[in-house]
User: Fold these one by one.
Assistant:
Number 1:
Amino acid sequence: MTDFSVPQRMGFGAFVIYFLKFFRLTFNASIIYMAYTLFQSDGDLTKTILKIAAIVGCTTIFALILASLAIFQMKFHVEDGNLIYRHNLISRATTTIPLSRIHTLRTRQGLLYRLFDLRGVLFDTLAAKEEEIELVLSESDWQSLLTRIERQELTQSAVSNMPPAYNPSSFIEFSNKDLVFDALCQNHLKGMVILGGFVSVIFNTLSDFSENSIELIEGYIKSHFDQFALSVTGVALIMACTYIVSLVLWLGKVLLRYYNLSLTYNSKMLTFSHGLFSRLSSRFTRDKICTVWIKLNYFEKRFGLSTIALRQALNSSAKKEDDNLKIYGRDHYDFFLSWWLGQDYGQEADIATAKSGKGVISRSLLSDVLLSSVAIAVLWHFGLYVWTILPATYLLAGIPKGILTMRHSHITLKESYLIVNNGCFAETKNYLKYDNIEVVRVTRTPLSRFTGRVSLSISTTGTTFTVRSLRQEQAMNIYELLLAKPQK
Amino acid sequence: MYEQSPDRDQINRPIDELHYEPVNPRFRSVQIVSAVIAYSLLAVLALLLLLVDTYWWCIAAEIVITVSFIINLKILRKAYKFKGYALREHDITYRGGVIFPKITTVPFSKIQQVSIKQNPVSKYFGLSAIDIVNGAQVLSSLAIQGLTKEKADAIKNVITQRLNNNHD
């Protein structure tokens, strides 16, 4: 049985697997050329067969070279509780993965693998960005490696693997009336933009029609809607129709997805079940949730509603489907926060807090200024002087948007969690636990030396937040606290 | 063997007062050679403009590439001076960037894997880069370039030891 203590290459069986994989790849790539040779043949069958044989020969040699390189460049071993592998031929890399960090072992055993009694092994850690390297091992080597990893895990989790306490499940059913009510409170302008895009695609397609068809449509519109053409009422009517259509589509989408939303929960897990025709279910484990996202726009605040989303930790092989679930309706955020942060979460005092400065307004306006300037220049160039009022209005609307963004943007540190507030027209609160913080970054801009303001970025396993234009001393104090908290 | 463990004085220092270990001076040569290779390729590609249009476009493109190259060299010099890393008791911090200087800290307990990399240019100058991968969705990797093989190995050893000790 191999003990993996010295660097080793994969065996002959792995070489055959790699060769067949590369051969399939190169053969597929050369098929078109072979077909071309076959059809271009001048009737001399021997010559054509020889040509095709030469192509297959070249493909085989190329696949052999690639397989040899793949096997040659890859060495792996286990040392001091770490899996170490050397890979890449030109840019040499040696990657070290502590065995304790491997949380999933994926194996594949297709027909070819079974023929040679081999197993393809892939290692997953919590890393979002990792190179997927497959080790092709014999069955005995695989068992030996698995034993080593299991031994490592056993020594670490002997204490933590106590059986979980009995946890009876509870059930909550969310109101469909609140769902519709909150769906109506959302920003539907985005839907209008999408619908506008869809209409413009149709318009582009129409413009590809023959001249006669266009004239026919034009004549029909003129005869029926002449009174509206280019009039303010006409434009307003089109806008209103688009809005109603987008609203109906939006409500349909929400009802299809979230109709009869129900929640079964215990202290460790939330299981949502929802959907009008096909019932979907989404599961959230308490320790995998990295952020609780709560959005409150003006109407939601007024009518006691809220939109809640639970963001989960993801790794490179995880799917993001569950993360798209949003809970529309009455403000249930207190329930979710109590479940996740503990009953006393609201009693905790602020440890540190920092608010964004005016830099947020200028940053928010920057993209609007660029976009509006380009639009005004284009409209002016084509002589559509009256229409320049649209980008100018958009730019003016950017000012209150920037002010609101600045007002909403702040960070508050509590004893066991932190809140990152952001959003422009709607206020968004993001609740995070210190344990979930993976990286902290502070970024200065060329203006920082004059303004004394910096940006603070916090990244978790599922979300990233940047709080801009914070006072440098406050940002650095929070930076230190964010790093020190999980150690306590 | 070279030992890279957190300096006693550094352990409890705030980020602002940390002494950042500079990257190896040979890294400047690596950056210059890499820039020369990249801009030479661009300059050769710009010659293709001769095939599609008048030679003025080609001259203009070559001028833009040359000016960009000179500006890039100036920036690289400044960037090199700012680059640095520091190890503390529970985390590793990297400082980099020129126009938007950044300080990034990754707690040891969040590191998932460590890679030591060498491309042909850095290999020629005897330098390596250490790539520290964590579980974050966006800032998922911290790459410290311009380290000697010994230093990169030593940092890797500190990190892996911390990770394995944390679990014992």
Number 2:
Amino acid sequence: MGDVVQVAAPWVLPAALLLGVAALGVTALDGALAARAAGRPASVGAQHPLVETARLLRQRRRTTVAADTLLRHVAVGGFVVAPLLMVAVVPLGAWVLADASVGVVWFNAVDVLVWVLVWLAGWGPNAIWSLTGGYRFLAQAMAYELPLMFALTAPAVAAGSLRVGDVAASQSAVPYVVWMPVAFLVYCTGVLAFSVRGPLSPAGGPAISGGVLGELSGVDRLLVLSGRAGLLVAGAAFAVPLFLGGGSGPLLPGWLWVLVKTAVLAAVLVVVRRRLPDVRPDRFLAVGWTVLLPAALLQLLVVSVVVVVRS
Amino acid sequence: MAVRDLLARWALRGAAVLLVEVPGGWAVRVAVQRALTARGWREATSPADADALVVCGVPGGGWDEVLGRTWAQLPGPRARASVRAVEDVAGVLDALAVSLGDDDAQRADAASRGLAPEDLAPGDDMHPGGMELAGGEDDLRDGLEMDVLRVPLGPVLPCWPAGLVLRTVLSGDVVVRGRVEVLPGGARGPAVEPGSVDDVARRLDAAAQVLRLAGAVDLAARAVRLRDAVIDVGSSTAPSGGPSSRTSTTTRHQERSSLALRRQSAGGRAPSGARRRHGAGEGAPSLGALRRLHVEKEGDSQHFDDYLRGVGEVRGRVERSRVLAWALRAGDVATSSPTSGAESDAAQASAPGDLRDVGLDGQCRTRDDVRTLLLDLLDPDAHDDDPGRRTRAALEALPERLVGVDVVTARLLVAALDLRTDALDADDLAALAPRDDDSDDDSDDASDEHAHHGHAHG
């Protein structure tokens, strides 16, 4: 594998477009699965993201009494920015938007930023269901964040670098998922948790009338919905250089392998997400601290020992 | 403009509709839900999410204000309608689509009202927008100063019993106390015969709501499809009328005699294993008579057997799913329950009157109940002899059961109780009528008082 090249700034636009298409893709898959479960043609459900986009573009933006408008705008805008910041350090074959020497830490910092965004989205509207969504998400975050952090550390320790390109290059023979399966699973749990939807992410859902989404309409809602789909995609994309060998693979060029691996992992996450019921925060906290965290630390220990023995 | 038309056309393929079920409007609500799915539309989860407001049933007194406020919260383009009979559903949805697609009218509506809602009253630092700030109370779990909110749950909430208003005091997202009120329908719903098509369908509907609230979306969708299948079978079997028409007298009679068991409100119910079971071949008793009737008419029992198998599958998945049990049930969480000794004593000593102990314990019990109740709803053998009495008893016990339970669990429990507010009689409704006083100090007493009234009349 050759070195990763940092591309010029204008490439951010095509990257954002690609991320948007992928976000449409996972939403379409989710819609198709939902339609099939309801006994409707999957093709109708697959149109869901386009239909919803058209609907929300037509809809007015609504505000609430004594809302904290500034913080709400920060949250809504932030949802679109966060996934972009995540994929900025993911190499697409030989190219990367930002070849940061601390790429792994950068990703971690952005996923903590999601806490802030969800909390502000909950706080901003000055409404009970939004606030409840924010509360619940923060409680859940206490459960997934530390294990996720240590899971991210494992590949970095093995590669001896925090640069994402180096981590990808160091697994040309065997992808890290093979000998760090626990870290990979903990990482995927974290992705499901920070994507603000589904079983591990109790910020929304019908039980709390939409939660942080409950008071958002129109473009605001569209941005948050796109952002959370983007977070899932970004989480899947970042797993590729970290655990799945980056662009390495037979026949296809590196950039295509990255896309294929991202798409497959994102699809698996969507399917898993649909199959699990919501896990309430206190339960997840118990699991996070008694199962995920020790498991991630043990994995890290194993990796560290292997690295020391090898050198 | 072509772009505007294109957007409107696509937007109308997936309109979101906020359904408000009035007591007595169950059959209409289900018919609307089915029509929504058939169109590719969906139910909205909150007013901000909704394009249209559809009232199902005939609203009684007290609804006008609620509906008016809800309507004002729809962002627009918006449309509203009221459906009183199952036959009207298709026409009403067509009209909604036309109204939502009418750009000029929607623009006029948008121009007539501001984007920001008006303040409730002249505000100041302690009353932003005229609203009270969150308060504090001495005896609450974490002693936070501004943590206590007064929040009415319902009557406009998805997966929520028709007309039920639970006036809660929340500490964070935990219910500190609550008071039950019911907004009545304008016309009493048709009496539901125990074990009739309606009863079976309604229990499946309640199960679907629980599953949906629990986030088990695909299982919920299956329960909804089974519900619809039952309604279809029922309407093809019943002599006349829609799904809300009664089954024949023979059916009713056979069911009455064949089944002594009735569903009980949670609390002192028997474990599901102890319930009488029947061989799958002969069908469940509550459905058995219906099945025979269906066979007579249609010449085969295919639908029924499919249905029974389907319910069995869903129930089996709920029963077997460890994840669902883990998500719904108690377990090891109750470490600080009063029985667990020193730790609990220490907690109590450090925070006298701490609600946490009660809370965790109550929560575990409640989740346990939700799972039991859910399995019960999916039991083809169980049926409901007197929904009115059962609902009244459950409503009386509800405020106490919800103390220390978080709102999501509270909503799961309310859904799992399958409360039939349309089966309450006039005396119950009078006792549960909305009251103006917002006094919170004596609301515990007030709910007790309600309960007593209910008893006296019942």
